[in-house]
């Protein structure tokens, strides 16, 4: 492709606005931008130590809904935001906010590859996998199942060395 034929990068908003099914997608994009703007506004009003615990925010009719990461922070943010609600109402677009709801949204715990690899398989499960593998006609797939069964042997050896 020559330089004159290279396409310029377009924003997601531009792509969605040109899409034939754009109305729903553009609406979702705008709603997401509004939630992000509200969250930024609220975080700016909060004390520095509370900002990171305010995970998301949205305004539904007259109800300001804020999500936090724990019940302890929910109580703190409820008091802080109640005091800040009049200040927020004076800002453009948030004059309808008269109610406050603080909800808890625990952070999702994702396991690292190392944590997943630390799972233990007992010898009985390994034997069942070997039996299943013996019935698989595809050699490549059978070898993969046998390799999985070897994990139990490796786990048993590791456990014996720890003792």
Explain this structure to me?
With 163 residues, the chain is mainly alpha-helical. The protein folds into two domains: 93 residues, GMP Synthetase, Chain A, domain 3, CATH 3.30.300; 50 residues. Helix content is 58%, strand content 12%. It contains seven helices and three strands; from the N terminus they run αααββαβααα. The chain has a three-stranded mixed beta sheet. A hairpin with a 2-residue loop joins strand 1 and strand 2. The longest helix is centred in the N-terminal third of the chain and has 24 residues. The radius of gyration is 27 Å and the shape is elongated.
Features:
mainly alpha; three-stranded mixed beta sheet; 7 helices; GMP Synthetase, Chain A, domain 3
Taking strands numbered 1, 2, ... along the chain, how are they ordered across the largest sheet? 1-2-3
Unreliably modeled segments: none
Give the class from helix and strand content and strand pairing: mainly alpha
CATH class descriptor of the largest domain:
Alpha Beta
Radius of gyration equals 27 Å
**Terminal-residue CA separation:** 63 Å
Give the count of structural domains: 2
Mean pLDDT: 80
Binned strand content: 5-15%
Total strand segments = 3
Give helix and strand order, one letter per element, not per position.
HHHEEHEHHH
User: Any idea what the CATH architecture of the largest domain is?
Assistant: 2-Layer Sandwich
Bulk shape: elongated
* Main beta sheet strand tally, sense and closure: 3 strands, mixed
Number of helices: 7
From the 3D structure, determine the CATH topology of the largest domain: GMP Synthetase, Chain A, domain 3
Q: Percent helix among the residues?
A: 55-70%
